[in-house]
Amino acid sequence: MHILKIISGPLIGALIGYFTNYIAVKMLFFPKKEVRIFGKRLPFTPGAIPKGRKRLAKKAGSVIANQLITKEAIVSRMTEPEFENAMVNRIASLFTQSIEKMVANAGYSEAKTAQMKEKMTVSMTASIADSIKDIDFEQLVRDKGIVMIKQKLAGSLIGAFVTDGMLNNFVEPIAASLRDYVETDGRDLVQEQVAIKVEHLFSHSPESLLKRVDIEHEQIQRVIKNKYRTLAEEGVERILNRINVSDIVADAIDAMSIDELEEMVLSVMKKEFDMIINLGAFIGFVLGLLNLVI
């Protein structure tokens, strides 16, 4: 009986601490709607998350737009060595193959130099521009952009609100803007560099021109790589100026039901919430022990 009296204080303190924190966590989500008695709204209704959903949605949109989907982050993904090298090598190969084919079949002579330069520039520009247009921009955005966002948001509270469906809402508008930029501005950027390289190649004698193609291949790759990065930076900036990422995220979160919000938050933060509840029990137990000592 004496032992029971000793341990009852700490145990009661632990129970009080446990249920106090348990109720506090539950009050984040419940009640889902405000409760009124005699026309007066009861305090703490609705729960913190239902009540602040619009504010939370706006904040999540702002965080994603200003800290995650930035020009630097997207360009960094688009210029990762594996992807960038594949694109540069593809375009450079088209470039050199076009030169070899046209020089070999043109019946080269001094009289045809100007005509050949123009024809080569137009042909290679068209080939490279068409090759860029063939890029699956939707898949590019999905593979690079969405993976980047998921990695940065992993384990965070904001990450709980950003679903695959919400991220997929970004894919089409961003891909469409990329495609539009390439179609409207890409050809001019490509043609400028093609013309420079063609002029440089033709500064050599006819006999050495075909040999120079192999020598120039690495230089062509460097030029294309520099222009690819410029195209990526300018294109991403233009896209972000056209798309209101913050509003897309905020609208998507605001459209979710309270049950969906609760499920998502718990899927990410359940471990932390359990820790808070257990901490309440521990603190209550310690306070009960201190009460015995005092």
UniProtKB/TrEMBL annotation:
Compartments reported by the entry: Endomembrane system
Record-linked InterPro entries: DUF445 (IPR007383)
Signal peptide limits: none
GO cellular component labels: endomembrane system
Keyword Membrane recorded: yes
Regions crossing the membrane: 6-30, 275-293
Pfam families in UniProt: DUF445 (PF04286)
This protein's UniProt keywords: Membrane, Transmembrane, Transmembrane helix
Main location per the UniProt record: membrane
Protein's UniProt keywords contain Membrane: yes
Family: Belongs to the UPF0754 family.
PANTHER family per UniProt: UPF0754 MEMBRANE PROTEIN YHEB
Protein's recorded name: DUF445 family protein
Organism listed in the record: Pseudoramibacter porci
Classification of source organism: Bacteria, Bacillati, Bacillota, Clostridia, Eubacteriales
